[in-house]
Design brief:
Number of strands: 13
Strand order of the largest sheet: 4-6-5-13-10
Structural class: mainly alpha
Largest sheet: 5 strands, antiparallel
Helix content: 40-55%
Strand content: 5-15%
Shape: globular
Radius of gyration: 24 Å
Distance between the termini: 15 Å
Length: about 850
DNA sequence: ACCTCCCGCCATGCT
DNA sequence: AGCATGGCGGGAGGT
C-alpha cells in the first residue's frame, strides 16, 4: 500500500532541481535544511525509481519521509508499509514496486486508493515548485510533463491546477502550459477573496443556515422565515453558483480563464469555498454548509440531492488541494446530531484587501495592462456561463468579451516558454516510517516554529514589516487589524463594499483604487447586483464561551490534547520537514508549505466547531431564500490593479502569514486537557460585536494603526503570541512526554491557560472583547512558508528582502539563522484550547433581527482525515 | 452503512 | 476533426 505511493508518485520528479525556481527555497527551506542538511536534495536522480523516493538512503530522505508522514495520507502509507524505499520507482512505479517490493508489501504496492489521492498528488505537485519562485526564472509548468512524471492522468492535474489557479498560484500561459507563481500572490488573493466574500455576505449566509438548522433541530419554531429569506436571498445572489472568478492583480492571470469555458466550477467553487473560510468567524466550514451556499442558487434544494452530492464531491476535491496547501485542515464538527465533516482554515489570516491598505503600491504600467485583461476575463466569466444561470449579459459585453478572448488567445498561445520544471520534490514520498516518527518530526518542527515565530514575530514583525513592507507596509495594517478583529472584520467589509456600488446596468467594470493593502481592483458587477450594494454588515456571531468539551470528548481529550500538540507541532514541523526533504534550494520554502499540509492532515486537532448544521436542513435553507435583493453579489470580478504592489505586498503577506499562522494554532491546540478552558479564543472573538463597532475599528486600523501594530505578523502575534510565545513548545513538550510515557496525557504543562492573550492594539481590544479570540481565529497557520528569505526569517530581520525577494535568491544564511532561532527552547506553555461553541447566528443583526441562535456546541474533532 | 473521493466517460470548446 | 479542458456522477475503498 503505501509504499507505492511513492512510486506512484514517483516522480520524483525531477528533482527538483531543475530548474526551476529555486530560489525560494530558501527561506522555508532553511529550516529544514538546517535540520537536515543534506539532502539533497535534490534530487535524486533518478526519478524513476523514486518513488518517493528515495529518500531512504539519505537522511534527507528520512526527513522527507517524516514530512510526508505528516500528512495523513502519507503517513498511513508509510506506516503501513514502510517499506521500502522505494526506489523503484519509476514512474510507474507501481509496477516496479510490486516487483521490488517484497512480498509483503506487495500489497501495498498497489497503490491503495489513498496513495492515489488527490491530496497526495497535489503534494507531489507542489513539491516540484518553490513556494516563492523567483520570478525571473521561468516557472512554466507543462501539464503533460507533470502528469507523466507523477504518473497520473491529466485529468487529475487539471483538478489541481484549477484550484491553484483560483488562488492565483498558477496562471495559464497557453495550452498545456501554466506558469507557477507560488505563494507570492497568495495573500493578496486571499485578501481579495475575503473582500468579495464579505461583499457577498457569506458570513451572514452561513449564519442563517446554521440558525435554521438549529431551529429545525430544536424545532424551535421555525423562525426562520425571515432569516431564511435572507439567506436565500443571499444565496441567490451571492451564492450564485456562478460567481465570477475573482481575478487578481498582476500576475498574469489573465490567462486564467483562458478558455473561457466555464470558468465556473472548480475555479469559482474553489474561490467561494475559500471565501467562506475567510469570512466566517470560526473559520470552520462544514461541507454541508459550503455546499449549500455554493449551490446556492437556488433553489434547488430539494431538487437535487444529486446536485448536492456532486457539490460535495467537488468540495472534497478542492479541499484536498487546499489541504495540501495547508490552507485548511479537516476536522469534524460535532453537533447534537452527530459529526459532520468540516474544514478549518489554517492558512494565513488575511485582511481584506480593500480595506486597508497600504498606500502604496506602485502600480506600474503593467497594471494597466493587467487590468484590461482582467476585465476581459471578468467579462467572460460573467457572461460566459454556460448553462448555468448566471447573470444576464449584455450583448455588447459579450462581443467585447469575445474579442478580448480572441486576443487573449493569441497572446496565450504565443508564450510558451520552455518548460520548466523543477522538481524538487521528493518530498512526499514516503518512506516508510512510522507515524510516530512523523509526529515527532512534526513536533520538532512545531517547536522550532514556535520559537522562531515568537522572536520573529516580535522583531520581525516590526522590523521586518517595516522593512519589507515598506512598500506594502500599509497593507499590513489592515491585515493586522482584521486578524485581530477578525470576526468583526469579517462582518464588515469595509472597503469592499463601497466599491461595489455601482449601478451599472449591465456589468460595468468599476475600478476601485484601493491603495492600501490590496491592490485596487476593478469589480465587474452584473446589473442585478449593481443594484444594491449594501455594505456587508457584520454579522456578529455569538460566541459561546463555554468551552465545552463535551462528554464526548472524553475520547477526544486525550487525543485532542495530544493531537493538538501534535498538530501544532506538525504544522511547523511540517513546514520544516519539507524543507528538509526537499531538495532544498528551490523549494524549500515551498516545501515547507507543502509539507505542512501533510502535517495538518495528519494531525488532528480538536477545535472548536461551530457548525451545527443540520444536514438536511440545507435544503430547507436553500428553499427559503429569495429575497434579499440587497446583497451584493460576488458575481463581479475583481481585478486588482496593482501588480507591483502585489509583489511587495506579497512579501509582506508572507511574513504575515507566517507569523499569523503560528500563533493561532497554538491557541487552538492548547491543551484541552489542561485547559479547562477550552474555549478557544476564536470563540471568544467570535463574540459579536455589533457590526457598527467593528467597522469603526477597522477604520481605525488603517495604516496608521498598522504601523503601530505589527502587521500581519502582529496579528498573529497578538493572538498567538501570547501563549505561544511564552511557551512555544510547551505543547510539544507535553506531547512528547506523553508519548514517551513520561507523563500522562492528562497532565500537561500548560503555560497559559487560554487567556493569555495579549491584546494587541487598543483597537483590537476594543473590538474584540476577548483578545484571545481574535488571535485564535486568525492564527493558525503556521507555516513558514516564507516566501522569501526575509520572510523565512522569522526573526524578521532579514526582512529587507521583500522587495527583492522574489527576484533575489534567498540566502541560505538567513535560513540558518532562522533555524537557530527555532531551536531555541521549547518551553512551553501550553495553550489552552477550548472548545467553544460558536454561533454564527448572532451575526447579522443588522440584517436580521436578532438571530440569535442557541448556541451549540460544536466540537471539533479533529480527525484527520481519512 | 456512511464517508470519501477516484476514475474516467463524455460534453464543451478551442485549434 | 482532433485535442485540450473539465463537468459529473458511478461506484469502490476505507472506516
Amino acid at each position: 500500500m503505501e509504499n507505492e505511493k511513492e512510486n506512484l508518485f514517483s516522480e520524483p520528479h525531477k528533482r527538483g532541481q531543475m530548474k526551476t525556481p529555486l530560489k525560494e527555497s530558501t527561506a522555508a527551506n532553511i529550516v529544514l535544511t538546517e535540520i537536515q542538511p543534506d539532502f539533497g536534495p535534490l534530487t535524486t536522480p533518478t526519478k524513476p525509481k523514486e518513488t518517493s523516493q528515495g529518500e531512504p538512503w539519505t537522511p534527507t530522505a528520512n526527513l522527507k519521509m517524516l514530512i510526508s508522514a505528516v500528512s495523513p495520507e502519507i503517513r498511513n502509507r508509510d506506516q503501513k508499509r514502510g517499506l521500502f524505499d522505494n526506489r523503484n520507482g519509476l514512474p510507474e512505479p507501481k509496477d516496479c514496486l510490486h516487483e521490488h517490493l517484497s512480498g509483503d508489501e506487495y500489497e501495498k504496492s498497489q497503490p491503495s486508493r489513498k496513495e492515489k489521492s488527490l491530496g497526495l498528488l497535489c503534494h507531489k505537485f507542489l513539491a516540484r515548485y518553490p513556494n516563492y519562485p523567483n520570478p525571473a526564472v521561468n516557472n512554466d509548468i507543462c501539464l503533460d510533463e507533470v502528469a507523466e512524471e507523477l504518473n497520473v492522468e491529466r485529468r487529475r492535474i487539471y483538478d489541481i491546477v484549477n484550484v491553484l489557479e483560483s488562488l492565483h498560484m498558477v496562471s495559464r500561459l497557453a495550452k498545456n502550459r501554466y506558469t507557477w507563481h507560488g505563494r507570492h500572490n497568495l495573500n493578496k488573493t486571499l485578501g481579495t477573496l475575503k473582500s468579495v466574500g464579505e461583499e457577498n455576505k457569506y458570513a451572514e449566509q452561513i449564519m442563517m443556515i446554521k440558525k435554521r438548522e438549529y431551529e429545525q433541530e430544536f424545532d424551535f419554531s421555525k423562525s426562520y422565515s425571515i432569516e431564511d429569506h435572507i439567506i436565500k436571498a443571499n444565496a441567490d445572489q451571492n451564492g450564485h453558483p456562478d460567481m465570477c472568478f475573482v481575478e487578481l492583480p498582476g500576475v498574469e492571470f489573465r490567462a486564467a480563464s483562458v478558455n473561457s469555458r466555464k470558468d465556473k466550477s472548480l475555479r469559482v467553487m474553489s474561490q467561494k469555498f475559500v471565501m467562506l473560510f475567510l469570512v466566517s468567524t470560526p473559520q470552520i466550514v462544514s461541507l454541508e454548509i459550503a455546499a449549500k451556499i455554493l449551490i446556492g442558487e437556488d433553489h434547488v434544494e430539494d431538487l437535487d440531492k444529486s446536485k448536492f452530492k456532486t457539490k460535495i464531491r467537488r468540495l472534497y476535491d478542492i479541499a484536498n488541494v487546499l489541504s495540501s496547501l495547508d490552507l485548511i485542515k479537516k476536522v469534524h464538527v460535532t453537533e447534537e446530531r452527530g459529526r459532520k465533516p468540516a474544514f478549518k482554515w489554517t492558512g494565513p489570516e488575511i485582511s481584506p484587501n480593500p480595506s486597508g491598505l497600504s498606500p502604496v503600491i506602485p502600480f506600474s504600467p503593467s497594471d494597466l495592462e493587467v487590468r484590461q485583461p482582467s476585465k476581459e476575463n471578468c467579462a467572460k466569466n460573467l457572461f460566459s456561463t454556460h448553462g448555468k444561470p448566471n447573470f444576464t449579459r449584455h450583448p455588447s459585453l459579450i462581443k467585447l468579451v469575445k474579442s478580448i478572448e480572441s486576443d487573449r488567445r493569441k497572446i496565450n498561445s504565443a508564450p510558451s516558454s520552455p518548460v520548466k520544471t523543477n522538481k524538487a520534490e521528493s518530498s512526499q514520498s514516503s518512506a516508510p516510517f512510522p507515524s510516530k516518527m512523523a509526529q515527532l518530526a512534526a513536533i520538532c518542527k512545531m517547536q522550532l516554529e514556535e520559537q522562531s515565530s515568537e522572536p520573529r514575530k516580535k522583531a520581525k514583525l516590526q522590523l521586518a514589516r517595516s522593512g519589507h513592507c515598506k512598500p506594502m507596509a500599509p497593507l499590513d495594517s489592515p491585515v493586522n487589524a482584521e486578524l485581530e478583529l477578525t470576526a468583526p472584520a469579517l462582518l464588515q467589509p469595509l472597503g469592499v463594499v463601497p466599491l461595489i456600488p455601482n449601478p451599472l446596468s449591465s456589468a460595468v467594470p468599476m475600478i476601485l483604487p484601493q491603495a492600501p493593502s490590496g491592490p485596487s481592483y476593478a469589480i465587474y458587477l452584473q446589473p442585478a447586483q449593481a443594484q444594491t450594494m449594501t455594505p456587508p454588515q457584520g454579522l456578529s456571531p455569538t460566541v459561546c464561551p463555554t468551552p465545552y468539551s463535551k462528554a464526548t470528548r472524553s475520547e477526544d481529550y486525550p487525543d485532542a490534547t495530544t493531537e493538538k500538540a501534535a498538530n501544532d507541532a506538525e504544522k511547523p514541523s511540517t513546514s520544516t520537514r519539507p524543507g528538509n526533504l526537499l531538495p532544498v534550494p528551490e523549494r524549500q520554502g515551498t516545501q515547507n508549505r507543502d509539507r505542512e499540509p501533510a502535517a495538518e492532515r495528519g494531525s488532528k486537532r480538536a477545535s472548536i466547531v461551530e457548525d451545527s448544521g443540520s444536514k438536511k436542513k440545507l435544503k430547507e435553507d436553500l428553499k427559503g431564500h429569495e429575497n434579499v435583493p440587497t446583497t451584493l453579489f460576488p458575481s463581479g470580478y475583481l481585478i486588482p490593479l496593482t501588480q507591483c504592489s502585489s509583489l511587495g505586498a506579497e512579501s509582506i503577506l508572507h511574513s504575515k502569514e507566517n507569523s499569523g499562522t503560528l500563533s493561532p494554532n497554538h491557541r487552538i491546540y492548547s491543551s484541552p486537557i489542561a485547559g479547562v478552558i477550552p474555549v478557544t479564543s476564536s470563540e471568544l472573538t467570535a463574540v459579536n460585536f455589533p457590526s457598527f463597532h467593528v467597522t469603526p475599528l477597522k477604520l481605525m486600523v488603517s495604516p496608521t494603526s498598522v504601523a503601530a501594530v505589527p502587521v500581519g505578523n502582529s496579528s498573529a502575534i497578538s493572538s498567538s503570541h501570547p501563549v505561544p510565545v511564552q511557551n512555544p513548545s510547551s505543547a510539544i513538550v507535553n506531547f512528547t512526554l506523553q508519548h514517551l510515557g513520561l507523563i500522562s496525557p492528562s497532565v500537561q504543562v500548560s503555560a497559559s491557560p487560554g487567556s493569555g492573550t495579549v491584546p494587541m492594539s487598543p483597537r483590537i481590544e476594543a473590538v474584540s472583547i476577548i483578545p484571545e479570540n481574535a488571535g485564535s481565529q486568525q492564527g493558525r497557520a503556521t507555516r513558514y512558508d516564507s516566501p522569501v528569505l526575509g520572510q523565512n526569517q522569522l526573526n524578521g530581520q532579514s526582512i529587507a528582502v521583500t522587495g527583492a525577494q522574489q527576484p533575489v535568491p534567498v540566502t541560505p544564511k538567513g535560513s540558518q539563522l532562522v533555524a537557530e532561532s527555532f531551536f531555541r527552547t521549547p518551553g512551553g506553555p501550553m495553550k489552552s484550547m477550548g472548545s467553544s461553541c460558536m454561533d454564527f447566528d448572532g451575526a447579522n443583526k443588522t440584517s436580521v433581527g436578532s438571530l440569535f441562535v442557541p448556541q451549540r456546541k460544536l466540537e471539533v474533532s479533529t480527525e484527520d482525515v481519512h
